[in-house]
Every structure is written in structure tokens, then in C-alpha cells.
Amino acid sequence: MSGIPEATAIILTTAERTELEGLVRSTKTEHRLRQRARIVLLASEGLASRAIGRAVGCTTGTASKWRVRYAEKLFGGLDETGDRGAEPKYTAETGKRILALLDQPKPKGYARWSGPLLAAALGDVDVQYVWRFLRAQKIDLAGRKSWCESNDPEFAAKAADVVGLYMAPPENAIVICVDEKPSIQALERAQGYLKMPNGRALGGHSHDYKRNGTSTLFAAFEVATGKVTAAHKKRRRRIEFLDFMNDIIAAWPDTAIHVVLDNLNTHKPRNDRWLKLHPNVTFHFTPTRASWLNQVEIWFSILQAKSLCDESFTSVKQLRDHIDNFIDDYNANAKPFVWTKSEVHQKRLKARFADQ
Predict the structure, then answer these.
(1) How far apart are CA 225 and CA 213, in angstroms?
(2) From CA 180, how far away is CA 105, in angstroms rounded?
(3) What does the alpha-carbon distance between residue 42 and residue 10 come to, in Å, rounded to a whole number?
(4) Phi, psi of 355 (to 5 degrees)
(5) Is 50 within 8 Å of 39 (Cβ atoms)?
(6) Are the C-beta atoms of residues 271 and 189 closer than 8 Å to each other?
(7) How far apart, in whole angstroms, are the C-alpha atoms of residue 70 and residue 78?
């Protein structure tokens, strides 16, 4: 008797043969998968593994391996890549350990976790794997952002009220957004251009400066036109706010005025006698800690970037004149902001990394 074992027999159905032949003919099939399909087809014709290896261009062991796998698992056997070597050193459990550690107090003396600190605390995880895992999870340990999360239980109702004014303002009425930009500093500092060693020229200012006082700007942004009405005050008390509102009413007499405001205490006293005396004025307050819904905040950022940033002022009067000139030019070409977000959601932040 021969000591050579008999080759595993392969018997194909018509459907199996058709699919295997399709794999062999397809130019989009991976080379290794085409090779395995040919091995199975030749095996079904009764060829020995040695003959199949010569025909396909592989070893006898490879031919035997894939005919046996197909006999056991059919097409599922062809998808297997065989032994993959040692088990992976790091698993999903390792990732959970990293996320859980991020929720623990940082090492004493450190402000935040870093890759090396995490690796040292874990003890058995390489720092390079820590970095790879954090990148895969899109966790930036060095990046920093500040936020203000609204905890207003009436967030949805207040937000809908304000956004409704933007999307569908009342007919025959004026909608304005009002707020203050307090303590604008009149800083005096040298300005000019610096030429760097590489030839690049940059505008800038000196590090040293002189303080020449401050001013508070009250502004009303008209939602329909984008125009701004402003007034300069020394302080931001209730009396200054009402003086500004009286100027607004004088500009639009006998007109219904809807005013969007934040929750500053000067805007909403307990007993508002002023509103009772002006029934044509309605105050609409943004949700707590959500003053970003007030469109005048967008205009304040434009003012800061285009007019105030890096400028030098020798007096408060020069500062105020500078702002007035900017507002005159802005109003000459004013355009309303296009508010497209019809729904505003109260999104809660995740408190822990392990909640990823």
C-alpha cells in the first residue's frame, strides 16, 4: 500500500462551477482569489495537487491547502487568508483602557494627559500605539477650545422665538438686535511693517502700549437692512441702556419694535416700568448662555476684526471717532445677514472620553 494520502475530492454543483469560472475570467478579481478558484476547478476534474501546482504555478502544499479549505467551507474557505501569525498584541480592550484613563485625574503637576504620560500610566502599552489609537478616535490632547453650554430649561422655546423673528419677521414692525461692547480700550502703540530675514513683509505693532482710557459701545443691528445704530457711553448701567433705547424709539416713532437681547441684568430688571410706558416695544431674550443667537454679536466681531484690531488711539475721542467712521462706511454698504438655520438644538457635551 502506498503511504501517500488520497487528495481531497471536490464535487461542484453547476452553480458553484459557474461562479468559480466567473472568478477566473474576471479581470477585477484579485490574483490570489483567481488562483484559488483555478485550484478548485482543476481539483474538481480529478487532478492531483502536484499536477495542479504545476498548472497554476504554485507549490503542492498551496494547491492542497485551498482544495481542502473549499471542501470544508466552500466559498467561505476561499476568503480566508490562512494563518496570520501571532495574535495581535493590542486589542479593543486596550483602547477601552486608554479612554478610561483619560477620564482619570492627570498626574500631579501636569495640566493634561499626553501620549508618553498615558503609556507610562498603562505600563504595558507602547507610546506609538497610544498615538495611533488617539488619532483613530480623533482625540487631540493638545487642542483646546472653550465653550459655553446653555442650561436653560426653556432653551427650545426661547430659541424658536428669536429664530422666528429672523426667519419670518412680523409685518409693519422693526426687528433689532441690541447689545453692548464694554470697555473698548484706547491703546496707543507704535505700528509699522517688519521685513523678515526670508524677505517676507508683515504688518504689526510694538509689544509696548499706553492706555488712554476706555469706552462702551451700545449698538442696535437692524435685521431687515443690516444697518447699525450706535452710541458711545462711559458705563453700561441700566440708565445708559434706557437712554440708548429712547434714541431707538425716537428713530422709529409709532412703530412696533421687537428687540433681541441677552440676559444681562441691565436688560431685564424685576419690575420693568420702562416697558410699561412703551407698549410698542417687545423684548425677546436669548436663552441663558446663548447670546450667540443675537445677530449684533456677529457685527461686533466684524467691528473688532476690521476696525479695532491692531489700531492705535491717543485718546478716547479718537477711538470713538474711528468707530463712528467705520459705522458710517458700513451702513453705506450694509447688507442683512442671511439666517438659514431654522432649528437650533440644545446639544449636550460628552462628559467623559469613555463615552466615545
Answers:
(1) 33
(2) 39
(3) 9
(4) -85, 5
(5) no
(6) no
(7) 6
d(CA 104, CA 283): 45
Cβ pair 234, 320 in contact under 8 A: no
Cβ neighbour number for residue 165 with a 10 Å cutoff: 22
What is the pairing mode between strands 191-195 and 201-205?
A: antiparallel
Question: How far is the CA of 265 from the CAs of 179, 239, 244, 290, 351, in angstroms?
Answer: 12, 12, 16, 15, 30
Q: pLDDT for 229-285, tens place per residue?
A: 999 999 999 999 999 999 999 999 889 999 999 999 999 887 889 999 999 999 999
- The three grid cell numbers given for residue 264, joined into one nine-digit string: 444681562
What long-range pairs does 161-166 form, CB within 8 A, spacing at least 24? 161/284, 162/260, 162/284, 162/286, 162/293, 162/294, 163/293, 163/339, 163/341, 163/342, 163/343, 163/344, 165/223, 165/258, 165/260, 165/284, 166/223, 166/295, 166/339
For 55-91, the pLDDT digits (tens) are: 888 888 888 888 888 888 787 777 765 555 567 789 9
Distance CA 35, CA 40 (A): 9
